From TrEMBL:
This is Glutamine--fructose-6-phosphate aminotransferase [isomerizing]. GO terms for molecular function: glutamine-fructose-6-phosphate transaminase (isomerizing) activity. Residues 45-184, 217-362 form the SIS domain. It comes from Motilibacter deserti. The keyword Coiled coil does not apply.
Length: 372
């Protein structure tokens, strides 16, 4: 009913709008007044956490994209090697795991069979498993050593939105907690990030205030044949998530590439009028990556692409090469996916609606897939 949907015509629109609150709920009670992380749910001893020598993230779909982003953050803060793998591939390749491996299983539903089987395999090899999950008491958390719940509330739309953002928050919390327990050479940076993380609900709120032009843009592209997405650094998994959303909801051919790979093949796809969405990392801190992606925007535009650029407020270097610029609030580079994903959700949702599709129940998809 309309009441269940909070006055929105679709659950997905409601769930996109709820994201500032969901992000706040995931953070709630997990950072104390002094900026220390308090993750009592991680019932592994500090000694065990100090002995971890490798992290493996396993997940499917959007949860896998959250894992790809987690890799950048956890490796940087903890200097632990992090592997990320789709759950359906994991156990069939004889992965190297033992009791000092920390496996992070990310699953909104806690019921994806692929992820569950990967968790079982990891535990048989004595790895310790932490689940990041949105559904209380579901199977994956029950079969794991510990669980970090995302507390996003039930998500009805088949395509993940608020659960994706809150999985990112949980991954950041876990990475920062590991850094706190194990010690990090970036102690000051970690302190600053904790403060920035606490401010992310407001940043997500701000980005929602500026997405109206994205709706118009999406409607203008309703008849496009395909859309390409490019990103670098954490913008690359964000691009993957943007493309997945478009496939799921608008049934449109959408591909994402690491922008550096363009020249190794995908650039051959660029033709007149092809929409190319580019997720630009912050110009601060990682200026080399920023310069490189600005060149990538130039390259595709010179070949006729219609460039849609997602860039931080104040980043004027992209403007000359962008047909459309979508602005996101300034954040720490590693936290930027929390804001950069939102316009891509709105884009896919609105484009699907313009094509007359039901965004809550896309064809052929299930909210949770309980078969392998
Ligand atoms: C299904 C859903 C996707 C989701 C994936 C993983 O395929 O349609 O939206 O990302 O499962 O689900 P999970 O519950 O394990 O996060």
């Amino acid at each position: 009913s309309a009441a269940e949907k909070g006055g929105y015509p679709y659950f997905m629109l409601k769930e996109i709008a709820e994201q500032p609150r969901s992000v706040a709920d995931t953070l709630l009670g997990r950072i104390d007044d002094t900026g220390r992380l308090a993750l009592d749910e991680v019932r592994l001893s500090e000694e065990d956490l100090r002995e971890v020598d490798k992290v493996i993230v396993i997940a499917c779909g959007s949860s896998y994209h959250a894992g790809l982003i987690a890799k950048y953050a956890i490796e940087h803060w903890t200097r632990l090697p992090v592997e990320v793998e789709v759950a359906s591939e994991f156990r069939y390749r004889d992965p190297i795991i033992d009791r000092s491996t920390l496996v992070v299983a990310i699953s909104q539903s806690g019921e994806s069979m692929d992820t569950l089987m990967a968790v079982r395999h990891a535990r048989e090899q004595k790895a310790r498993v932490i689940a990041i999950c949105n559904t209380n008491g579901s199977t994956i958390p029950r079969e794991s050593d510990a669980v970090l719940y995302t507390h996003a509330g039930p998500e009805v739309g088949v395509a993940a939105t608020k659960t994706f953002l809150t999985q990112l928050v949980a991954c950041y919390l876990l990475g920062l907690f590991l850094a706190q327990v194990r010690g990090t050479k970036f102690a000051d940076e970690v302190q600053a990030i904790v403060r920035e993380l606490a401010a992310m609900p407001d940043a997500v709120d701000d980005v929602l205030d500026t997405v109206e032009p994205v709706r118009e843009l999406a409607r203008s592209l309703a008849d496009a044949k395909a859309v390409l997405f490019l990103g670098r650094h954490v913008g690359y998994p964000v691009a993957l998530e943007g493309a997945l959303k478009l496939k799921e909801l608008a049934y449109m051919h959408a591909e994402a590439f690491a922008a550096g790979e363009l020249k190794h093949g995908p650039i051959a796809l660029i033709e007149d009028g092809l929409p190319v969405v580019v997720v630009v990392p912050s110009p601060r801190g990682r200026s080399v990556i920023h310069q490189k992606i600005v060149s990538n925007i130039q390259e595709v535009r010179a070949r006729g692409a219609r460039t849609i650029v997602i860039a931080e407020e104040g980043d004027e270097a992209v403007t000359p090469y962008a047909d459309t610029v979508i602005r996101t609030p300034r954040t720490a580079t590693l936290l930027a996916p929390l804001v950069a994903t939102v316009p891509l959700q709105v884009f896919a949702c609105e484009l699907a609606l313009a094509r007359g599709l039901d965004v809550d129940q896309p064809r052929n998809l299930a909210k949770s897939v309980t078969v392998e």
